[in-house]
Write a sequence for this structure.
């Protein structure tokens, strides 16, 4: 299985162009778009989502991970094998949290591409590599071993919103297991306690909970937390 | 074929996570997203779309239907077989109109899940059940027969807008066969007559017509009915 | 491979309904959505995108191309074979630039459909034809040979924005090979010079470049060109 984890946006050409490469170079292998709406340019937010949302995929899965403000420049491409899954994409920090949490990690740096479009490495570099990995688990000559953690200064738990979903729920860069159940989350002047799920609170009440992928999420039962609490990707919070 | 009929929104993770489960548990069975942009929390609007848009799918098709404001609470999960197609999802009224119109209906209530995430039954309960149904038409032990119609008070034809499409056309909860061709639709102070299709009216003129799925739809030739008539999901109309 | 090139929008029912037809009539043939967010009603903008974005697909690919403000009226349906690829869709100019640039072109006009929905030829006419072409390269009886170029008055290079992507980059209807590298693009009072790619410019600086599909694109490094330069689909520019 090949999984797309990108900021390509809803229904423009980039997802389709990458799918076309995969279809030709890895025919018959299913391709699933997990995120197409990561915040453009925000590598850090994506880095905290990746390990939480990759955890449900089987060994051998290949992730194409693209939040790439530096495309065409000197930033290296990265290839990571973590706990049996493969990850390819620009390596400016996107794999930092993933590799820090994994039990078994190998990392490689990709050679700078000679012929790729300077603005679309996802199509010309990462998709062909992902296709090869998905076909036979090999990646050919070129990649050289590298250090795992491009952003050692990033914290293990990020006390910020990293994604707003369709319902206005705010997913954070903090794992629920790292926060005591009795803790209060303070965000934009609001103090939120923990609930098990939406229907445990009255309509319109804000709370935090452990979402279905293990992250702290801020929500409002039958309402939009983003608007009600005036929060967006990047909004910080405190735990007390 | 498995069909997704949800409010998961464009390109966030939930559709991908459900697809990943289906890929693993029903490999090789095609999955099609029919609606991903149903209005969040609006079970009634979705209920009137479902039978109209399901009608084109072949026998044996399995629909995963999710508009689920009550996820994690006491609301039951439902399994419906109607005219040879399967439907799984939260049962708070979503299947009401479907079952009322079908010729052959069987309904079951799903047991409350022991291990599912309290906020993502689509991934943990409905997708695995849909995969099993799509594989071999069976659903194992657990579901118990139930009554079909969770919302008997809902009318057969809903005189409200239930969906605004990409072009600003307003699809309603009323079947075109239930409205005389000479009828006038009155909505927000506008009186609309029937046309066969868009190009039969001058640019900018509003009208109603029988859309390609048999529902009354309000539209403007080469314009947006939602803006021009100031209508949204939930706007009522009268037939005279 | 069947490719969707439409204005159906993100995640509404129309893409799913077309996919359902293709799944039933061309089972096993992959379907890729290349564009689902073409500007509604803007045939000309789409016409300049089509040849640039179709170029990467293999011979035998079948494109379903739909920007169809005239659906249900007298406008003909078209079938085009250009350089080994097939294209079906309403023929009001959408194939003009494609056919003008191709080396080998054959065109047919489709018979007016007897039974199709007057508002959804994509589902009832174009998808079944595409399925047949993808299955065995045949199109049965009915289509008659026609002239290629429905809009001979359209220029070879359109000096207008034809698409705004997810990042706010503005793709134009002009091929990069038709513009000298030293040229200045003048748009809305801004004079832009050419860059190789994003990272060659400081953050926040606007420029033009040859995008990964060969078109002139106007962009801002780590910013949104559409907002910064106040441009939209249809905004004209001059080359000096």
């Amino acid at each position: 299985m090949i999984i797309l984890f990108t900021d390509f946006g809803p229904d423009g050409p980039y997802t389709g162009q990458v799918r076309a490469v995969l279809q030709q170079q890895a025919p018959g292998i299913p391709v699933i778009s997990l995120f197409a709406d990561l915040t453009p340019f925000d590598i850090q937010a994506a880095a905290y989502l990746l390990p939480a949302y990759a955890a449900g995929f089987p060994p051998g899965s290949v992730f194409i991970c693209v939040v790439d403000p530096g495309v065409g420049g000197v930033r290296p491409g990265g290839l990571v094998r973590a706990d049996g899954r493969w990850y390819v994409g620009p390596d400016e920090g996107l794999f930092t949290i993933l590799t820090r949490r994994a039990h078994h990690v190998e990392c490689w740096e990709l050679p700078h591409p000679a012929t790729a479009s300077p603005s679309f490495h996802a199509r010309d570099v990462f998709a062909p590599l992902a296709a090869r990995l998905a076909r036979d688990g090999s990646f050919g000559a070129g990649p050289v071993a590298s250090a795992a953690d491009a952003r050692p200064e990033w914290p293990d738990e990020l006390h910020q919103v990293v994604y707003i979903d369709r319902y206005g729920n705010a997913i954070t860069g903090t794992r629920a297991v790292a926060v005591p159940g009795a803790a209060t989350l303070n965000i934009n002047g609001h103090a939120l306690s923990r609930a098990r799920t939406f229907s445990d609170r009255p309509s319109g009440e804000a709370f935090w909970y452990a979402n279905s992928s293990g992250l702290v999420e801020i929500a409002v039962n039958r309402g939009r937390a983003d608007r009600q609490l005036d929060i967006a990707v990047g909004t910080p919070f405190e735990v007390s």
